Amino acid sequence: MTTDLISALSQRIASEILKQPARTIAADEKLISSGLVDSFSLVDLSLMIEDDYGVQIDDTELNAETFDTLNELAALIQSRQ
Protein backbone atom coordinates (compact mmCIF):
# COMPACT_ATOMS: atom_id res chain seq x y z
CA MET A 1 0.00 0.00 0.00
CA THR A 2 2.75 2.48 0.86
CA THR A 3 4.46 2.10 -2.53
CA ASP A 4 1.13 2.58 -4.32
CA LEU A 5 0.33 5.60 -2.16
CA ILE A 6 3.76 7.17 -2.78
CA SER A 7 3.41 6.57 -6.51
CA ALA A 8 -0.05 8.15 -6.54
CA LEU A 9 1.19 11.14 -4.53
CA SER A 10 4.16 11.58 -6.86
CA GLN A 11 1.97 11.60 -9.96
CA ARG A 12 -0.67 13.88 -8.47
CA ILE A 13 1.83 16.41 -7.04
CA ALA A 14 3.83 16.52 -10.28
CA SER A 15 0.71 17.02 -12.37
CA GLU A 16 -1.51 19.21 -10.18
CA ILE A 17 0.89 21.13 -7.95
CA LEU A 18 4.07 21.42 -10.02
CA LYS A 19 2.29 21.40 -13.41
CA GLN A 20 4.97 19.01 -14.68
CA PRO A 21 3.10 15.75 -15.40
CA ALA A 22 6.17 13.99 -16.81
CA ARG A 23 8.23 14.66 -13.66
CA THR A 24 8.95 11.85 -11.22
CA ILE A 25 9.32 12.69 -7.54
CA ALA A 26 11.41 10.27 -5.49
CA ALA A 27 9.97 9.04 -2.18
CA ASP A 28 12.73 10.76 -0.20
CA GLU A 29 13.06 13.90 -2.34
CA LYS A 30 12.69 17.08 -0.33
CA LEU A 31 9.59 19.00 -1.37
CA ILE A 32 9.55 22.03 0.90
CA SER A 33 13.13 22.44 2.13
CA SER A 34 14.43 22.19 -1.45
CA GLY A 35 11.99 24.85 -2.66
CA LEU A 36 10.23 22.45 -5.04
CA VAL A 37 6.93 23.23 -3.32
CA ASP A 38 6.57 26.84 -2.18
CA SER A 39 4.31 28.16 0.57
CA PHE A 40 1.46 28.95 -1.83
CA SER A 41 1.57 25.48 -3.37
CA LEU A 42 1.82 23.92 0.08
CA VAL A 43 -1.71 25.05 0.89
CA ASP A 44 -2.95 23.58 -2.41
CA LEU A 45 -1.10 20.36 -1.63
CA SER A 46 -2.67 20.03 1.81
CA LEU A 47 -6.16 20.66 0.41
CA MET A 48 -5.56 18.08 -2.32
CA ILE A 49 -4.47 15.48 0.24
CA GLU A 50 -7.46 16.24 2.46
CA ASP A 51 -9.85 15.89 -0.48
CA ASP A 52 -8.22 12.82 -2.05
CA TYR A 53 -7.63 10.82 1.13
CA GLY A 54 -10.22 12.15 3.57
CA VAL A 55 -7.70 13.15 6.22
CA GLN A 56 -7.45 16.35 8.23
CA ILE A 57 -4.16 18.24 8.16
CA ASP A 58 -3.60 20.90 10.77
CA ASP A 59 -2.06 24.19 9.64
CA THR A 60 0.78 23.66 12.11
CA GLU A 61 1.79 20.52 10.18
CA LEU A 62 2.43 22.42 6.97
CA ASN A 63 6.19 22.59 7.35
CA ALA A 64 9.36 20.81 6.33
CA GLU A 65 9.56 18.94 9.64
CA THR A 66 6.40 16.91 9.04
CA PHE A 67 5.52 17.37 5.38
CA ASP A 68 8.78 17.38 3.38
CA THR A 69 8.92 14.05 1.53
CA LEU A 70 6.48 11.63 -0.05
CA ASN A 71 7.47 9.10 2.62
CA GLU A 72 6.39 11.56 5.32
CA LEU A 73 3.18 12.43 3.50
CA ALA A 74 2.30 8.75 3.05
CA ALA A 75 2.97 8.03 6.72
CA LEU A 76 0.79 10.98 7.74
CA ILE A 77 -2.05 9.85 5.48
CA GLN A 78 -1.87 6.24 6.65
CA SER A 79 -1.80 7.24 10.31
CA ARG A 80 -5.05 9.17 9.85
CA GLN A 81 -7.06 6.71 7.76
Query: What low-confidence regions span 5 or more consecutive residues with pLDDT below 50?
Result: none
Q: Which range does the strand content fall in?
A: under 5%
Domain count = 1
- Biggest pleated sheet: none
> What sequence of helices (H) and strands (E) makes up the elements?
HHH
Structural class: mainly alpha
Distance between the termini: 12 Å
Name of the level-1 CATH class: Mainly Alpha
CATH architecture: Orthogonal Bundle
Oligomer: single chain
How many runs of DSSP E, i.e. beta strands?
Answer: 0
Bulk shape: globular
Average the pLDDT over all residues and give the rounded result.
Answer: 93
Rg for CA atoms = 11 Å
Helix content: 40-55%
CATH topology: Non-ribosomal Peptide Synthetase Peptidyl Carrier Protein, Chain A
The CATH H-level homologous superfamily: ACP-like
**Contiguous helical run count:** 3
What's the quick description here?
The chain is mainly α. About 50% of the residues lie in helices and about 0% in strands.
Structural features, described:
The protein has 81 residues and is mainly α. It has one domain: Non-ribosomal Peptide Synthetase Peptidyl Carrier Protein, Chain A (Orthogonal Bundle), CATH 1.10.1200. It contains three helices and no strands. The radius of gyration is 11 Å and the shape is globular. The two termini are 12 Å apart. The mean pLDDT is 93.
